[in-house]
């Protein structure tokens, strides 16, 4: 009898334990999701000046997925607006570096000028190409303010390739890949400016 009672008590306690665990997971899930969204927001949106937009760009993804460009692939994008007017488009793209895929986030303002470029993922050689992952990044900052017209299509290359950009020391392939992907993004923006900027109030 005592054994049966003990088994019943153990079963009740186990049930309570599972119930409490389930409740704790359910109640903390929104908090965890919110924290992850905040981390993603900081990671993706710190390319933009804080006062340049007032929407939630990550909640307005653009319908871009696996669009093959000359030197890269577009994986997605977002639109940043202020007072319902487009400020910038953020394009996520992937290109092939020296050691593997490089994923970049490229922010282009409504006039077609680069706001900034940031590395999201990479597997380049430590101490060489992997320096593109540093943030802030002096080498990537040299693209800010540039556009497809300035320096022009022919200028979007390394100086050793008759272009206008220096390379990361010891990382020619990585540097070339990033420059080509950035140029791809600018060309894509220039050719699809209207649908990318859109009109959020009518979507």
Description:
The protein has two domains: 1-45; 50-202, no CATH class. A hairpin with a 4-residue loop joins strand 5 (101-109) and strand 6. 29% of the residues are buried. The protein has helices at 2-45, 138-141, 172-191, 193-197, and strands spanning 61-62, 67-68, 73-82, 85-96, 101-109, 114-121. The model has no long low-confidence stretch (mean pLDDT 87). By secondary structure, the protein is α+β, with helices and mostly antiparallel strands. 36% of the residues lie in helices and 21% in strands. It is elongated.
TL;DR?
The protein is an alpha+beta fold and 203 residues long. The chain has helices spanning 2-45, 138-141, 172-191, 193-197; strands at 61-62, 67-68, 73-82, 85-96, 101-109, 114-121.
Secondary-structure element pattern, one letter each? HEEEEEEHHH
Radius of gyration: 24 Å
**Major sheet size, sense and barrel closure:** 6 strands, antiparallel
Shape descriptor reads elongated
Number of helices: 4
Distance between the termini: 69 Å
Strand content: 15-25%
Helix content: 25-40%
Number of strands: 6
How many domain regions? 2
pLDDT under 50 segments (min length 5)? none
Q: Give me the secondary-structure category.
A: alpha+beta
